[in-house]
Amino acid sequence: MSHVLGEGEKSSLDSFVDGLSYFEAFVMPELCRFYGIIIKIQSREHLPPHIHVWYAGHDSATIRIRDGTVLRGKLPKPQLSCVLAWIRLHQDELMDAWDLASRRMDPGKIDPLE
Question: Rounded to two decimals, what is the model's pTM?
């Protein structure tokens, strides 16, 4: 026997999806977004301090904050150049964000590259 949902009532699938959104926002909050690039930092993460970068929904890379070394993945050269320039401009803020995230605190947002 099926149940018809009333107005404002959520299915278990809707609740699960909402939970994933919450989980993603808490565990890997977004630091910045510019030129189609999304930069996040993970709160339950390993050393060295690094960021996770996505571009166009399919290219992604993990980049060390200290020196911009790509630890994993790849990005198109123009987008990688933008991210590396952004890292150089915001290195201190990124390290502060890493410290906050590692203590399960909100790392906040960082200004985009202009």
Answer: 0.76
